[in-house]
């Protein structure tokens, strides 16, 4: 079965997720629909003198503290394993296609830097590099492509694994790359993953310096307030999601259960500012419209939008502008999973695509919680506070990243 452009239709046959709400697809989905929050106070490291002391963390494994790449790998591995189990494809350690991993950029973290500086007896980078030179472990721990290489070995994927980062659109970009590989006939199946494990001191400080984080520290569960009048920033979070993508005909031939279809992908960049979107909204509008065109749908055929919905004044304003420009005076309902799980950054696009598919599966819109006072400048139906049953065939999932990197996906029910 081909799409309106004659390309192979791309089916989703497996989903795996982990967030601050818990480990596993069904636990996350049930808590999202119940309006539960996974945001808590940070206990992983001291937060004295930090402006923001809350996050959506996933508990580390027992033993020595994990670096962000190691934590990202652990979360990604869990999500992939769960997705493969549901898809029922391949044998243990032998997957018949490539891996696309979206993950955060990596840098040596403060504890390692401080240790190197002590051993070098100097704070300058040349001396620290010299101290690190004999140790391959540091390189292996922080090599950007190392996580995907180890995951590819673990799950037996084919070809060189692809590692990518496109800021907050990363997870959606990984899915787009997987979809396009199947459409080009390069593979019949692939794994698309977005993972994030970067709640560590330097990351929190950097986002605080950008004035991007909520400082509602006294009420962690109520801090993330997308589209609400008193929103004051996003809440950093961790998590991962993996989708098993397959050529629809191949999946049907092997008797796989089809969860849904990735019907369209659209991207657009504006290169306007390090963190802000261009006020004209062209890139956001372009990504949404490109996704609809790629899916062969008109705006009126979208039943629900899984919003980027970070809870920053700037993002929510721009997403509202995009919704009204694309859908007119009667846009479909839009809600933000980030109100409950926080902003999982590199994982967010993949997680929200996964939740969009579960929205279609169960015909249930997850809410936007903490919506106490509507913003008069955001005239949208944000599914406030309580889930809602609805007929859902097509979902638009928005991912708008820092630096103007925007990717939108259209997820759909299996065609009858």
What is shown here, in short?
The chain has 13 helices and 15 strands. The chain is α/β, with parallel strands linked by helices and 416 residues long. The chain has one domain (10-106, 143-412): Peroxisomal Thiolase, Chain A, domain 1 (3-Layer(aba) Sandwich).
Walk me through what this model shows.
- The strands form three sheets. Strands 1, 2, 5, 6, 7, 8, 9, 10, 11, 14 and 15 form an eleven-stranded mixed β-sheet that branches.
- Helices cover 34% and strands 18% of the residues.
- The chain contains 13 helices and 15 strands.
- Helix 10 (282-295) packs across helix 11.
- 53% of the residues are buried.
- By secondary structure, the protein is α/β, with parallel strands linked by helices.
- It has one domain: Thiolase/Chalcone synthase (Peroxisomal Thiolase, Chain A, domain 1, 3-Layer(aba) Sandwich), CATH 3.40.47.10.
Radius of gyration: 21 Å
Shape: globular
The CATH homologous superfamily is named Thiolase/Chalcone synthase
Instruction: Tell me the number of structural domains.
Output: 1
Please name the CATH topology: Peroxisomal Thiolase, Chain A, domain 1
Instruction: Report the helical percentage.
Output: 25-40%
Low-confidence stretches: none
State the distance separating the first and last CA atoms.
12 Å
Strand count, sense and closure of the main sheet?
11 strands, mixed
Topology:
Elements: E1 10-19, E2 22-23, H1 25-33, E3 40-41, E4 54-55, H2 68-87, E5 99-102, H3 110-120, H4 125-132, H5 136-142, H6 146-155, E6 162-164, H7 170-183, E7 189-196, H8 201-209, E8 239-247, H9 248-253, E9 260-269, H10 282-295, E10 304-306, H11 313-327, E11 334-335, H12 338-341, H13 348-362, E12 364-365, E13 388-389, E14 394-401, E15 405-412
Parallel strand pairs: 5-6, 5-7, 10-11, 10-14
Antiparallel strand pairs: 1-2, 1-8, 1-9, 3-4, 7-8, 9-15, 12-13, 14-15
Helix pairs in contact: 2-6, 3-4, 7-13, 10-11
